[in-house]
Amino acid sequence: MVTLYKSGVYLSGNEVIAEEQYAGPVDKAQAKKGTISWSILASHNTSDNMDKLKIKFDSLTSHDITYVGIIQTAKASGMERFPLPYVLTNCHNSLCAVGGTINSDDHMFGLSAAQRYGGIYVPPAHCRYSPVYA
Q1: What tens digit of pLDDT does each residue of 67-106 get?
Q2: What InterPro entries does this protein's entry cite (predicted)?
Q3: Ramachandran bin of 131, using left for φ above 0, alpha for ψ from -120 to 50, beta for the remaining angles
């Protein structure tokens, strides 16, 4: 179930406390620094300013609908290796948009690109999306 709050909330253990119901004094700026999001952003920020982030990514991931275009653009730009770990997953059939291919064509395209440019290939049997019902 999703609950919409008009103001912020605080998490105390497993209890969600609406901002207007929280009795103690709160320094919002200090509380923000205690969040999981803050710690992730701070550890990946290459600037000295948390108000103007310059994020360094550990890796990139895309599925076959996007990796086809990314790889074609990388090749056209002259890139020889992916500059950071790049995970290529398979859950669609995107090459069929240009006519007459099958999923195995997409998968072979992704595998050969991962080998050529240093990517991480996730075989189609390991990429399954489960539908989410609300």
Answers
A1: 888 888 988 999 999 999 999 887 765 555 555 556 667 7
A2: Aconitase/IPM_isomerase, Aconitase_4Fe-4S_dom
A3: beta
Who contacts 91 (Cβ-Cβ below 8 Å, separation ≥6)?
63, 64, 124, 127, 128, 129
Output the CA–CA distances (angstroms, integers) from residue 21 to 1, 28, 30, 34, in the order listed. 21, 15, 19, 20
Instruction: Please count the other Cβ atoms lying within 10 Å of the Cβ belonging to residue 54.
Output: 10
pLDDT digits (tens, 9 = 90+) for 32-63: 898 899 999 999 999 999 999 999 999 988 88
- What value, to the nearest 5°, has the Cα angle with vertex 115 and ends 88 and 63? 10
Q: Please tell me the distance from the alpha carbon of residue 36 to that of residue 20, in angstroms, as a whole number.
A: 22
Coil, strand, or helix at residue 118?
A: coil
